[in-house]
Request: fold
Amino acid sequence: MKIGILISGRGSNMVALVDAIKSGEIPHSEVAVVISDKASAGLEKAKERGVETLVIQRSGRTREEHDAEIANALRKRDVELVCLAGYMRLLSKDFIHAFENRIVNIHPSLLPAFPGLDAQRQALEHGVKITGCTVHYVNEHLDAGPIILQKAVEVRDDDTVEILSARILEQEHKAYVEAVRRIAS
Ligand code: GAR
Reply:
């Protein structure tokens, strides 16, 4: 299974996937390309791991034009599964339809609670006692496609956004690897 990973920043979920593929934990798979919408720390980590990287900037274009260039780059490499890993842009309908049921995302809450930005802050402000992360298929609605798997994380009384986010992130790495392993096998 050829995988394309889209990132925007740190790329720790991308690293978890690349490393799990290299170690054989995710079978029958290869990361064909990591694409970022800007120069990012994550791209450097992908390069260090010998994975092809591309920067495809939005740069004054419409979302549709930007996404069309990304879709072309993925198709050129015969990508079958697109993993969003901290990719902080909304995708156009055309892109979602071009890769129907073949785009997955990781989100740092137990969806459908706390979609959108700052999910960990939303959870703290709401005062929930349990939050977590969700791996789901991407459809036309924000953070709303069919859920593949979730992991729960307890919220502690003295949590800050940073501390809670770090604890959720540990579970994100496990959840994303497990979800892609299931899809690959
Ligand atoms: C992760 O916590 C991911 O769940 C979140 O951004 C972070 C990216 O970290 N994504 C979203 O909030 C998407 N709505 P990473 O770059 O280290 O993988």
About this structure: The CA atoms of residues 2 and 79 lie 5 Å apart. The chain has one domain: 2-184. The chain has a mean pLDDT of 97.
